[in-house]
Specification:
mainly alpha; rod-shaped
């Protein structure tokens, strides 16, 4: 009987831990998708500003993107960056 109770309590504790880990994972997923969406929006704005002829410094100030990111937007992906899949 004691063993059954012990297993029951371990099982309940395990279920609580799994639920807690799932909540944490969901919060992290939400945070990541929010940040990812913000970055995509900033890149979209930067592309439009670049098309309109704004300076790289102005684009950086408004979007918060790094200079390297803004400068790389016009470059086409190279074979080194994206190797072909056989």
């Amino acid at each position: 009987m004691r063993a059954e109770r012990a297993v029951h309590w371990v099982s309940r504790d395990y279920e609580k831990a799994v639920r807690r880990m799932n909540r944490i994972k969901n919060e992290m997923d939400i945070h990541y998708s929010y940040k990812s969406g913000q970055t995509e929006k900033a890149l979209e704005i930067a592309r439009k500003m670049k098309e309109m002829g704004d300076s790289v410094e102005r684009i950086q100030t408004i979007t918060g993107l790094s200079l390297e990111t803004i400068e790389q937007m016009d470059k086409k992906p190279t074979e080194e960056a994206y190797p072909s899949v056989p």
